[in-house]
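INFO  loader      accepted 1 record
INFO  loader      residues=133
INFO  predictor   begin
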Amino acid sequence: MDSWQALHAFWAGFDVPAYDEQTVFAEGDSPAYPHITYESAAGTNGNTELLTASLWDMIDPDSSQTASWAWLKQKAEEIKHAIGYGGIKIQVEGGGLWLKLPESSPFSRPLPSGEDNILRIQMNIEVDYIGGL
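INFO  predictor   done
INFO  writer      dumping tokens
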């Protein structure tokens, strides 16, 4: 597994569809809500990257059910708990990724999505690219 596949496997492991934010969807074929979008980067051994991901949900005006900040916050906490304060290491070809909670910024925060019916929480993680795992 390479680092791109490892990041996808991590973000897709929370029972929510996950997409690299560079994924291009055909017009009118955007992903259903809720979903996760995430940054990916090809790092080098000894390099640390600060990457972001976003949890998205939509308030459906035609439904009695609405998107919930509580659900988004709970899912963000689930992801934070999975990373833990010591981080997690994922073996990849030629080394590994060490995903950690950021030291210099909060892990998660609500952000405006640009649309009134879309809810978004941004998450920050540090990724160390390490050799020899």
